[in-house]
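Bit of a strange request maybe. I'm writing a small parser for structure token strings and I need a real example to test against, not something I typed by hand. Could someone generate the tokens for this chain?
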Amino acid sequence: MIALLLHGEDDLTVDSKRAVKEVLLAGDTALPPMGMGDEEPSHITNWLDCRRSRKQPNATVHDGFAHSVACTMATRAYWSGKRIYWDPKAEAILDEAPK
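Reply from user aminoacidic:
Good idea to test on real output. This should exercise your parser:
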């Protein structure tokens, strides 16, 4: 099973058409942590260490870009109720499948 919680702005009545669903992985008894901010010490420590050593951080700018695109697409799809597409050549979010 997969952990999933759908809601908007902590108000579970925002979109009454969509049910709140909590699905846990096999063996889990609780949902995993829901987020890690930029102020998380391990995130900042890794970034500072990489600045000093000139090594690649755990998450590169490309990883951040991909994460932002995925979050933007998920939000647009959720609120519009429509399928959203990614065009890797144009690096654009589309309402129709790329040709």
